[in-house]
Amino acid sequence: MKLLILGSGPLMEQAVRLGRAAGMELTVSEKAGDCPPLDHFDYILPATEEEGLLALAVGEKALFDQDAWSLTRSRLRTDETLQAAGVPIPAYFPEGSEPYIVKPDKGSFGQGIWVTEDFCEVGGAVNAGFVAQEELDGPVWSVAVTGAPGQYTVYPPARLTFQGRRRVSAHCEAPEAAQALADTARAAAEAVAVRGVLEVEAIYSHGTWRVTDLNARLPLFTPDALLEEQGVNLLSQLV
Fold first, then answer.
1. What is the pTM of this model?
2. Which end of the chain is more exposed for a tag (fewer CB within 10 A), N or C?
3. Where are the alpha helices (DSSP H) in 26-159?
4. How many Cβ atoms are within 10 Å of 209's Cβ, its own excluded?
5. Rounded to an integer, what distance in angstroms lies between the CA atom of residue 75 and that of residue 225?
6. Residues 216 and 210 sit within 8 Å (Cβ to Cβ)
């Protein structure tokens, strides 16, 4: 099986590890202008958030959902979609309690995020288009989901470890209310109607799993934890 991996950096390196473990013939393209003919490959996997490369991941060979990506790259649109589907999320300012975590509407890997108890600062950020929600206590869990509406597979959760706002590792553990977490992850996937792979990040707060982020791409670190600790190759499952 021939797989073209689009991207560079940690996501690409992770995809290569998964592909090698699955016995696939791999080609990596880091730039859109250097991409080989797509008809030479059985599948195309984006391991990036670079728009020029993501634009190449179309058609039946692409292990990627452009519509789900377009929706989930906006935190505001994502939260509106989840709320409409009845999937719990952290309370938006001015509801909930301080401190508030402030995030840009678009962005990944912890960039541009800060925490504050200053109502005026939060209000100004919201007026400037930022997302402001109450900061929840507790560990962040990552759950990978693959499939299509009505046919999703939910994989064992991984607890994320952070340095600052950047994740540095993931380890599979059994969280509190594990079945409720799996049900929440499946409901989030149904809400955005993803076809392919979705990462659901959630925190358990006051007896409820609340979704804090969605990524409609190959997750970072969670697939390594699934492979090494559970014997599950998320790339093989996605194919």
1. 0.93
2. N
3. 51-54, 66-72, 75-84, 119-127
4. 26
5. 26
6. no
DSSP annotation of 73 reads T
Q: Are strands 151-154 and 100-103 parallel, antiparallel or unpaired?
A: unpaired
For residue 207, the 8-state DSSP code is T
Cβ atoms 195, 148 nearer than 8 A: yes
Cis amide linkage into residue 149, ω under 30° from 0? no
Which residues, in sequence order, are bridge partners of residue 162? 167
Q: How far is CA 18 from CA 162, 179, 232, in A?
A: 23, 27, 10
Per the CB < 8 A criterion, the answer to whether 38 and 27 are in contact is: no
pLDDT in tens, 67-125: 999 999 999 999 999 999 999 999 999 998 889 999 998 877 667 888 998 888 988 99
Amino acid found at 229: E
End-to-end CA distance of the chain: 10
- 18-56 b/e (C-beta count within 10 Å ≥ 16 → b): bbeebebebbbbeeeeebeeeeebebbbbbbbeeebbeb
